[in-house]
Amino acid sequence: MLFSLYIKNFALIQELSVEFRPGLTIITGETGAGKSILIGALNLVLGERASSDMVRSGTNKAVIEAVLKNTGTEQVDALLRAADIEPAPELILRRELSASGQSRCFINDTPGTAALLKQVGELLIDLHGQHEHQLLLRSDTHETILDEYGGTNPEVARYRTVRAVLQDLQQQLDRLKKDAAEIRDKKEILDFQLNELNALDLKTGEDESNETEIILLENAETLFTLSTALSDLLYDSEHSVYSSISSALHTLEKLAGIDKRFAPYLEESRTAKSIVDELSRFSRSYAADIDFNPQRLDSLRERQLMLQRIGKKYGRSLKELIELRNELDARIALEDNLQEEVARIEHEISTQKAELSLQAEKLSSKRQEAAQRLENVIQGHLAHLGIPNSTFIVSMTHEEQVGGEIAIAGKTFAALANGYDRTEFLISTNPGERPKPLVKVASGGEISRVMLAIKSALAETANLPILVFDEIDTGISGRIAEAVGKSLKTLSRLHQIIAITHLPQIAAMADLHLSVQKSVQDNRTVTEVTVLDQESRLEAIAALISGKQISPTSLNLASELVASAESA
């Protein structure tokens, strides 16, 4: 339950603290006194959008704090834990708004976000004003109400899961078909390019190896002349290097035998002799292996020119041409694989459509059962609220669609977000009148009563512990007002109810009566809230009957209304 609400420097409120009780809390006060400011403050602490205009002029910061007790639910606790806030029996929601427009939010003194406040608040408090009445006129809210009443949210969740899988499969199929179509459109080109590249039998690095071989063949004569001359100089001539270094080594051995200082150079000279010997043998072998092959040279030049032309044509290097060839080969092979994948996904889609149709039919069937019960319950509540000859119908229609995802009884239907039902509330408030959509027939007073009837119907299934009604008495009076008050009283046995009213019949039903007054203090307008005792409560109800001039008659009427409410 909402235990207390603390407000400071918010609009006309300087500072006040209000404690609430279980049951029915009624808030009354003159027009403009600031009753709606209380609702506005409650909205703000529940995460609604804030504006610096809400901060009382001349102050730096507005503070609203709501204390709720015994509100722990699995959903609330899960939200708090996800935000690293430890759940507790007492939940403190706090909102601070600076004059500069900055906003800070706290839950149990832990900083949070307005979005988190809103998520928690939506699980705990259901606030209804004229805006919510207008929402009731929109048919897209009716399905949500029916699902809440019928307890079909698990079926809705299963349907959504299957629909999401189906949508994902359809997206996959569209992508695959697009890829396959692109390959088919370009297949002739792709085949030509692949055949052209395959015919060249491209090999990694052959451009470099060909260039090296061409240089060798072009310079074969020079290479033969030089290698032969080198071999002659090193070994074959009369005064060759090898002969000279051999003589030098012989002399060095004698010197080293006499003077050891020559010894280090002896080994180096032997190494030099070995190098000259090895180099001369390599020169002779190299000269013998030189290939004088003009035909091979022409072939290599032709191959080199071909590689240059194909590289220029595709704007790629040899390495990139090989990569392109492999890519083309994979893309063409992919078409066959794509067709297999398309067939597989089409089969999965068929299976999911059958499952979706099954879930949609189950959901619709359960909704239809709930719709019949809801019609009877709401008509009963409307009769109690002064619309005795009403006809309330939950209309459920289905949109046939050629090729729709849902197939039932030989027909196909569009797969909507929450099933294949289109739900709309129809009402006739006069005998003989055909039921029409709420937006076309319901007056302000009737919409208020339809809203209350729906809330009463949902009372036993709703998880929200706190209901707040602003302007619930719009367009009603007299006997109807008494009936509305009794319905609120009955509803308050299951939920904590807070309601703003201008009607004495509703105010008389209060378990707690709060009065909102506006006064001028130190040349500033101030809104205050007072908890009324029995005597002041009778005066407040009498004022609702006769205005500021309270008469003995209005006091007697107020006393009778309270007595009647207490005995009801």
Please provide a written account of the structure.
The chain has helices at residues 35-45, 74-82, 114-124, 130-136, 142-150, 153-200, 206-218, 220-236, 241-258, 263-289, 294-314, 318-384, 438-441, 444-458, 478-491, 504-507, 534-546, 552-567; strands spanning 2-10, 13-19, 24-29, 61-69, 90-98, 103-107, 110-112, 125-128, 391-397, 406-408, 411-413, 422-428, 436-437, 466-469, 496-500, 512-521, 524-531. By secondary structure, it is α+β, with helices and mostly antiparallel strands. The chain has 2 domains: 1-137 and 465-568, Rossmann fold, CATH 3.40.50.300; 179-335, no CATH class. Helix 5 (142-150) packs across helix 12, helix 6 packs antiparallel against helix 12 (318-384) and helix 14 packs parallel to helix 15 (478-491). The protein is elongated and about 155 Å long. The mean pLDDT is 87.
Write the layout of secondary structure elements.
Blueprint: E1 2-10, E2 13-19, E3 24-29, H1 35-45, E4 61-69, H2 74-82, E5 90-98, E6 103-107, E7 110-112, H3 114-124, E8 125-128, H4 130-136, H5 142-150, H6 153-200, H7 206-218, H8 220-236, H9 241-258, H10 263-289, H11 294-314, H12 318-384, E9 391-397, E10 406-408, E11 411-413, E12 422-428, E13 436-437, H13 438-441, H14 444-458, E14 466-469, H15 478-491, E15 496-500, H16 504-507, E16 512-521, E17 524-531, H17 534-546, H18 552-567
Parallel strand pairs: 3-15, 3-16, 8-14, 14-15
Antiparallel strand pairs: 1-2, 1-4, 4-5, 5-6, 6-7, 9-12, 10-11, 12-13, 16-17
Helix pairs in contact: 2-3, 5-12, 6-12, 7-11, 8-10, 9-10, 12-14, 14-15, 17-18
